[in-house]
Amino acid sequence: MKALAWHGKNDVRIDNVPDPKIINDRDAIIKITSTAICGSDLHLYNGFTPGMMAGDILGHEFMGEVVETGKGVSGEKLKKGDRVVVPFNIACGNCFFCKRDLYSSCDNTNPNAGLVEKQYGYAGSALFGYSHTLGGYAGGQAEYVRVPFADVGPYKVPEGLTDEQVLFLTDIFPTGYMAAENCNIQPGDTVAVWGAGPVGLFAIKSAFLLGAERVLAIDRFPERLALAQEAGAIPINYEQTPVQDEIRAQTHGMGADSCIDAVGLEAHGISPDAIYDKVMQVARLGTDRIHVLREAIMACRKSGTVSLPGVYVGIVDKMPMGAAFGKGLTLKMGQTHVQKYLPKLMGHIQNGDLDPTFLITHTLPLEQAPEAYKIFKEKKDGCVKVVLKPHTA
Amino acid sequence: MSINYTPNTNSSAQTADLPPTATITGKGGHPNVSDTERVISGVAGAVIAGYALTQTKNTLGTALPLGLLGGYLLYRGATGNCPTYTALRTGTGQQTDSKIAVIPEGQGIKIVKAMTIQKPASELYTFWRNFENLPVFMKHLEAVTVTDETHSSWTAKAPFGQTVSWDAEILSDEPNKRIVWRSLEHADIPNTGTVRFEELSAGRGTAVTVSLEYNPPLGMVGAVVAKMFGEEPGTQVHDSLRRFKELMETGELPTIQGQPNGVLGRNKTEGMA
Ligand SMILES: NC(=O)c1ccc[n+]([C@@H]2O[C@H](COP(=O)([O-])OP(=O)(O)OC[C@H]3O[C@@H](n4cnc5c(N)ncnc54)[C@H](O)[C@@H]3O)[C@@H](O)[C@H]2O)c1
Ligand SMILES: [Zn+2]
Ligand SMILES: [Zn+2]
Known about the structure:
Oligomer: heterodimer
Distance between the termini of chain B: 10 Å
Radius of gyration of chain B: 20 Å
Helix content of chain A: 25-40%
Bound molecules: nicotinamide-adenine-dinucleotide, zinc ion
CATH topology of the largest domain in chain A: Quinone Oxidoreductase, Chain A, domain 1
CATH architecture of the largest domain in chain B: 2-Layer Sandwich
CATH superfamily of the largest domain in chain B: START domain
Radius of gyration of chain A: 20 Å
CATH class of the largest domain in chain A: Alpha Beta
Number of domains of chain B: 2
Structural class of chain B: alpha+beta
Number of strands of chain B: 8
Strand content of chain B: 15-25%
């Protein structure tokens, strides 16, 4: 089959590889009908995530049709012909964490858990197509994929919904939703969201679903700010407007009730702290650029919440811990527990509360994935979200 | 590994940073090791280091199958001298469950590791008590043969296709609670240990605790050699317990062996920003 493989920094290629096979009893093989490129894939593409090997197949936002199931998957759970979306995190359904709906903390799916334990103390779940540190599982920017623990993750798509309507349930919709839910939004709240990329845009929509009165959207790309505005947010272009002053003004001097960092470790910036981070990262003295995290902590009102769907991987520098402590902030973060949110969010899509297709700007055959990565990385051509079709030829 | 906060992610870079001889000769804490042994161990260490590098290239993340067994075998191969443990006071005194005297005073390495597993103690005990099941989740074991109610023969893997073996007997067996064993005379690696199963309150599962004491080959040098390759004493026990948990909770062991790749996986982590 054809698959998109990582070969190094800024180097991804379409390779011909063997088709995946059932390895364990609880596996299934899925024929992929749609698969997307995520901001998280850019952290791999840009070389910021350790544990990558040349030849690794990327992709963690995919859906399709079940073509085979292992003998440990009961027909009631999943069978040949089912059309499913597949959560990006791999969860066993049996462990302490899965039983508490904390699927991205699953104990039992990462064969390389020891590597993570050395860095983090304890290891979370494996992810598809996201480095050997996080399991080394081949991803879904491919024609077929092997899905382990297939009786837990894949979620059946109800009749009458298109791929485009449900594809983002695999990651970015639940991620934006969990980011907003973590803010514990109360009537009258103002939520500030950094990053109007796919995750930020879903966070904005979700904040409104959860009752936010106002949402402020911070980015620099006009087309992304325009989408944020269409979703009901007040756009702030950080290249033109001083962010802290603007948030203070917009909240009548109080600060944002909660702040969402939907940017993560590759935050762009022009201020001295952002330039310092960039220098440290390039010189490999630091790993994560936390410019947005600093801004979010500073802009948050006392006793507010800072929610981080944006990914961090290592050690941060110049973290305003005193401000977070002094204001009594709550910090919430982590990989999304996708499985937990699927029934509810599928319901929102079916009811028409939210149409997830609004951010798709590019639909391309899988063969063009290498170009698509370039376009998405550089935010060229108004690119917000790319959907790839592996079986168009 | 170029990212400074993850020094352990890439074991090959780790070992490459460590000159094996320096680590051994520099250890003031092991005065029992003779100069000759140091040199031999150093050479052995270098060989294993080379082996470690070729291993990690293809199997990033799978534990290095090196460590204490490798040090032992290389020593035995290089010198033709097989250390015997006739001095061991096997079967005498000190009947505590963690230390039965198969190991000379002051020489053993003791490891205690625990894992909480979401299964009833009875189920976990039953699986473990059939020792022939153990190689399924203890990667370093080749085979266990149960010979009678209390006796069994064990074979463990070692580098270069070699093996080490020992016979063991059960000293105490409390169904669903505790198993205590020790190795018998002429064991390649004298060892003794306990595994306990304790159900926790509030539905938090069963705590499985392994206490193990073994006499490292070459005495402490073996342990030092083992440590050099990232195999802390205890890592193997911890990894085995984790796999036990995975198997008991989910019915299978997570793996990526046999999945498709692009070009043959070559470790490119070094090239990353
Ligand atoms: N927690 C999870 O489970 C999870 C899941 C998916 C994605 N993520 C993470 O969410 C983040 C965003 O993903 P995405 O797909 O939207 O990525 P994206 O690259 O499309 O969007 C990031 C946006 O952040 C903006 N940005 C950069 N610097 C900024 C700054 N200083 N201030 C304001 N905005 C700034 C960029 O202009 C861009 O629009 C990434 O870190 C990704 O890894 C996390
Ligand atoms: Zn994603
Ligand atoms: Zn689990």
